[in-house]
């Protein structure tokens, strides 16, 4: 019976975590803040800011690289938040963090 309660508790905590992640955002930046990308916990892009100083029709590769770098930065921050939340839940349930699948 304890096992069923534990599974129900874990399911409830996972649902709570999913709800939290729906509201989590992270901002990534590159070029010293010249390009910024905001992602949600579902990895949806909600905002992109590009300083006019980095828009150069003669060098589109620079802007492409800056956008990619800002996206990667935001993505890494979201991953860290997900892992932190999963580790917290795993700790509450006396499980190794790897068991949470994140």
Question: How would you describe this structure in keywords?
Answer:
102 residues; alpha+beta; Ybab, Chain: A; three-stranded antiparallel β-sheet; 2 helices; 3 strands; DNA binding; YbaB-like_sf
Radius of gyration: 18 Å
Shape: rod-shaped
Any idea what the CATH superfamily is called?
Nucleoid-associated protein YbaB-like domain
What is the domain total for the residues?
Answer: 1
How do the helices and strands follow one another from N- to C-terminus? HEEEH
Structural class: alpha+beta
Q: Kindly identify the CATH topology.
A: Ybab, Chain: A
* Average pLDDT number: 86
Number of helices: 2
> Beta-strand level of the residues, as a percent range?
15-25%
Named at the architecture level, the CATH assignment is 2-Layer Sandwich
| Major beta sheet, strand line-up | 1-2-3
Helix content: 40-55%
**Biggest sheet overview:** 3 strands, antiparallel
Number of strands: 3
> Distance between the terminal alpha carbons, to the nearest Å?
27 Å
- The low-pLDDT segments are none
CATH class: Alpha Beta
Topology:
Blueprint: H1 2-23, E1 25-30, E2 35-40, E3 45-50, H2 60-92
Helix pairs in contact: 1-2
Main location: cytoplasm
Subcellular location: Cytoplasm, Nucleoid
Protein name: Nucleoid-associated protein PQJ61_05190
């Amino acid at each position: 019976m304890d096992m069923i309660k534990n599974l129900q508790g874990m399911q409830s905590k996972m649902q709570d975590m999913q709800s939290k992640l729906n509201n989590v955002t992270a901002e990534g930046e590159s070029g010293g803040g010249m390009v910024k990308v905001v992602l949600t916990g579902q990895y949806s892009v909600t905002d992109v800011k590009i300083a006019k100083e980095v828009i150069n029709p003669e060098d589109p590769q620079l802007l492409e690289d800056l956008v990619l770098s800002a996206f990667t930065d935001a993505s890494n921050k979201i991953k860290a938040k997900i892992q932190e939340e999963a580790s917290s839940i795993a700790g509450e349930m006396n499980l190794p963090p790897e068991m949470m699948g994140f």
